[in-house]
């Protein structure tokens, strides 16, 4: 798994981890679609079956069953009317 965090997103994630008392950013599978898996970014904890990478002193985790999808991914964010939304590009 190779995942990094966009420079503009680092402080937002660090603040959210602190506010929610969590230690990692999780790439979580939420379903499957024609274009592959559907996923979301959530603040969480590292689990036994996770692949883990660290970027900007932030743990990024994903279950080993989906981590192979992320060979060159970037976590970024977008701010809008409904608040902050994370995305993987």
Key words describing this protein structure:
89 residues, alpha/beta, Hypothetical Protein Aq_1857, Chain: A, three-stranded mixed sheet, 54% strand
Task: Characterize the structure shown.
There is one protein chain. With 89 residues, the protein is α/β, with parallel strands linked by helices. The protein has a single domain, classed as Sandwich (Hypothetical Protein Aq_1857, Chain: A). 19% of the residues lie in helices and 54% in strands. The strands form 2 sheets. It has a 4-stranded mixed beta sheet with strand order 3-2-5-4. A 3-stranded mixed beta sheet has the order 1-6-7. The longest helix has 13 residues. The chain is globular and about 30 Å long. The protein starts with a strand and ends with a strand. The model has no long low-confidence stretch (mean pLDDT 93). Pfam families: Fe-S_biosyn (PF01521). InterPro entries: ATAP_core_dom, HesB-like_dom_sf. This is HesB-like domain-containing protein.
The CATH topology label is Hypothetical Protein Aq_1857, Chain: A
Rg on CA atoms, Å: 12 Å
Strand portion: over 45%
Q: What would CATH call the homologous superfamily?
A: HesB-like domain
Gist of the model:
InterPro entries: ATAP_core_dom, HesB-like_dom_sf. 19% of the residues lie in helices and 54% in strands. It has helices at residues 7-19, 64-67, and strands at residues 3-5, 24-33, 36-44, 50-55, 58-63, 73-80, 83-88.
